[in-house]
Amino acid sequence: MLDAVIPLLNANARVPVCGLISQYNATELPAGPDRLNWMMGQILSKKIKVQGFIIFDTFGHLYPEFASEMAGWIAAGKIKYREEIIDGLENAPSAFIGLLRGKNFGKRVIRVGHNGKATT
Predict the structure, then answer these.
(1) How close are the terminal C-alpha atoms of the chain, in Å?
(2) CB within 10 Å: which end of the chain, N or C, has fewer?
(3) Which InterPro entries match (predicted)?
């Protein structure tokens, strides 16, 4: 992706960085050529601004409104989502590792027993 996108960026482009959960537990660099020097050269010569962003830092105050509207859209069938339920707290570690490795599709939930009732 980097090789395909960076050359297409205009001078003074702005690139947001968000959602790196798949890399949280990386212990080594990914396989393949090291592109850091090339990428830094592109950032320098094109004057590209790369900035991380955390959604709640900027838009956190809008979350209550979003949650209310989204709940209505889900109830009306306008928004559909996938949810994977994994039973048992004992399966949580492998489920989380699978999440970090991209083995899920959609929301992954661990259901644990509580006083005879299942809760999430």
Answers:
(1) 36
(2) N
(3) GroES-like_sf (IPR011032), MDR_fam (IPR045010), NAD(P)-bd_dom_sf (IPR036291)
**Pair 10, 44: CB distance under 8 Å:** no
Q: Mean of the per-residue pLDDT values for the chain? A: 88
**How many other β-carbons are positioned within 10 Å of the β-carbon of residue 100?**
14
Q: How far is CA 75 from the centre of its chain?
A: 24
Q: Is the pTM of this model over 0.70?
A: no
Tell me the C-alpha distance between 7 and 51, whole Å: 18
Q: Dihedral of CA 89/93/96/98: which sign?
A: negative
Q: What is the DSSP letter of 9?
A: P
Tell me the two tokens of residue 73: 């859209």
Q: Where are the alpha helices (DSSP H) in 1-54?
A: 2-5, 36-46
Report whether 82 contacts 107 (CB < 8 A).
yes
Name the token pair of 11: 């001078």
